[in-house]
Amino acid sequence: MFELDPGEDLTLIVDVVQRFSTDILSQQYRDFEANEAIPEAVLNSYSALGLSAMELPESLGGAGLGSRAKCTILEELGYGDPGATLALDGIGPALYALAELGGDSAVERIILPRLSDPSARIALIWDDGDARKKDSLCRADNRYSGTVPWLPCADADLLVILDKQGASLIESGFTFSPLRGSGLRAAGAAELVLDQAAIIERWDEPAGAARALAKWQLYIAALLVGVSRVAAETSREYAMERVAFGKPIAHHQALAFLITDMHTAVDSSRLLVQDAACRADAGQPFVEAAATAFVEASENALFVTPNALQIFGGQGFMQDLPLEKYMREARTLSLLAGGIDRAKEIAGQALCRIEGTVELSALALSR
């Protein structure tokens, strides 16, 4: 049986995060975008919630709540402002690469000293190893060179470059050049140039790298669920209020079907994210499930957010309303963590290897 009850502890945390998301992130998103940064007061308020350590084991001073709890919280933050969420969570998914490949030692040395600093930032970068690309990274002689055309951050203290074989840690030899991003503007945006940047630590373990990428995909997928949800709910409320031909436009069959499809898409994305997170928490294989969840969340967000804007008509494109922002955020988020194509490749290869029946869910085993 499916068991989706978050439990009392997580419910209390979600309530607090919902208030933070709706009272602060949702109210100030245009200011965040205009400044391409988060005010210090908001950074401190987020830091006081203690969410950065929620996935760390209790032995390292964390809450030990796991991936499912993190995804649930990220959905709520994504509902408010995913760009601001990336800026607030300065360590972010870099934690996964360091924890999966460097172990507790790397977490203790690199992560823990920075948790108490709201302004600390570690940028996680995916290196697909494709040298044919015009803008690609090259690792040779224990150094990295190359250009990353866009990152959703204006600066970083450290870089963690994740590839199929492992991860590299870099602390110098790189520069950020500010850009005007089209999405996730609250997080800032920059072009990253590495010039013979020395690798101060290197961890090689393909299985660990795959798990780190999978958790990164879940991180982004949860934000996509949040963006999709707020877009679907906002457009539905408008469709229930606007009257045409004597009744709310939501009561006209064509639009009613579309609204239903949008909410179904949000729910299906959430279920796949929760399922993959439950697999991770239960110690089961979850790499393929995470890739599938990322693809579903990305493609559903790219369906929901433009249609939410269309329900509003021409005014949906105006910055007086958040609909155009939801569409930009969804498109930009889907480029992260290796993008949709990488996730499809992982999920497709897994399906081709299966002989016999396909297991549908790990949710029943999560409690």
Q: What is this structure, in a nutshell?
A:
With 367 residues, the chain is of the alpha+beta class. It contains 10 helices and 9 strands.
Keywords:
seven-stranded mixed β-sheet, 367 residues, two-stranded antiparallel sheet, single chain, 3 domains, 10 helices, alpha+beta, globular, Butyryl-CoA Dehydrogenase, subunit A, domain 2, Butyryl-Coa Dehydrogenase, subunit A, domain 1, Butyryl-CoA Dehydrogenase, subunit A, domain 3
Describe this structure in words.
This protein is of the alpha+beta class. It folds into 3 domains: 7-115, Butyryl-Coa Dehydrogenase, subunit A, domain 1 (Orthogonal Bundle), CATH 1.10.540; 122-204, Butyryl-CoA Dehydrogenase, subunit A, domain 2, CATH 2.40.110; 208-365, Butyryl-CoA Dehydrogenase, subunit A, domain 3. It has helices at 7-35, 40-49, 66-80, 82-88, 94-115, 206-241, 253-281, 287-312, 323-333, 339-353; strands at residues 122-126, 137-140, 143-151, 158-162, 166-170, 174-178, 190-204, 243-244, 247-248. The longest helix has 36 residues, at 206-241. The chain starts with 6 loop residues before the first helix and ends in a 14-residue tail after the last helix.
Q: What number of domains?
A: 3
Named at the architecture level, the CATH assignment of the largest domain is Up-down Bundle
- Content of β-strand: 5-15%
CATH class category label of the largest domain: Mainly Alpha
Task: Compute the CA-based radius of gyration.
Answer: 20 Å
Structural class by sheet pairing and helices: alpha+beta
Series of H and E elements: HHHHHEEEEEEEHEEHHHH
- Tell me the number of strands: 9
Mean pLDDT: 93
Tell me the helix content.
40-55%
Shape: globular
Q: Are there runs of 5+ residues with pLDDT below 50, and where?
A: none
User: If helices are DSSP runs of H or I spanning 4 or more residues, what is the number of helices?
Assistant: 10
CATH superfamily of the largest domain: Butyryl-CoA Dehydrogenase, subunit A, domain 3
By CATH, the topology of the largest domain is Butyryl-CoA Dehydrogenase, subunit A, domain 3
